[in-house]
Specification:
The protein is 44% helix and 10% strand. It is mostly helical. A two-stranded antiparallel sheet has the order 1-2. Strands 3-4 form a two-stranded antiparallel ribbon. The longest helix has 23 residues, at 133-155. The two termini are 47 Å apart. It is found in: Nucleus. This is U4/U6.U5 tri-snRNP-associated protein 1. InterPro entries: SNU66/SART1.
Length: 198
């Protein structure tokens, strides 16, 4: 069926198909991601929100220092801003790590058994029928398999054939008693021999 899926979490962020598939998979199989996966995902979300809040004039941390070093190397003119011993931009110190970790852990991780991400998913097909999680999971898994097969077909050359095609063709020709070519790499010629079964 043609299904239109919208993936929206509690914060209103639109999830991509991979994130929604992962959520459905965890829900369907009854287990959640590990601690490292959760940490990685939270860092990614934090980075995305940081990028959204940045204005177009903001620059990544450490850019000023790198620019000044480059200007020193090329011996071009540059401006030194000083209020005391440091520049007005301050040091990046890897996102002020010390300040972050002195306050204690930022995020507490859930147990796998109690994993319940704040995600609201609606599964609606073209007819307006609401699909349950199992039907949507099945649809997504079939769609992913189809995409994999299509990408495989794109990488195959025109001379490639799916495995077993030649054997199936020869069996069909034996059954219908039509002439067929047997290709062999040892004692026979490279062209093969034509044999007809009666």
């Amino acid at each position: 069926p043609n299904v239109k899926l919208e993936y929206i979490d509690d914060n209103g962020r639109i999830l991509n198909a991979k994130e929604a598939f992962r959520y459905l998979s965890h829900k369907f199989h009854g287990k959640g991601p590990g601690k490292n996966k959760i940490e990685k995902r939270l860092k990614k979300l934090e980075q995305e929100s940081l990028m959204k809040t940045m204005s177009s004039t903001d620059t990544p941390l450490g850019t000023l220092t790198m620019l000044q070093q480059k200007q020193k190397e090329t011996k071009t003119a540059y401006v030194v801003l000083s209020g005391n011993k440091q520049s007005s931009m301050g040091k990046d110190d890897k996102f002020n790590r010390r300040d972050r970790y002195q306050a204690g852990p930022i995020m507490d991780f859930r147990d796998k058994s109690n994993f319940n991400p704040n995600v609201k998913l609606e599964y609606i097909d073209d007819n307006g029928r609401i699909l349950n999680a199992k039907e949507a999971f099945r649809y997504l898994s079939h769609k992913l398999k189809k995409l994999e097969q299509e990408s495989l077909m794109k990488t195959m050359s025109s001379t490639d054939t799916p495995l077993g095609t030649l054997t199936m063709l020869q069996q069909k020709q034996k059954e219908t008693k039509t002439a067929y070519v047997v290709l062999s790499g040892n004692k026979q010629s490279s062209m093969g021999s034509i044999s007809k079964h009666k």
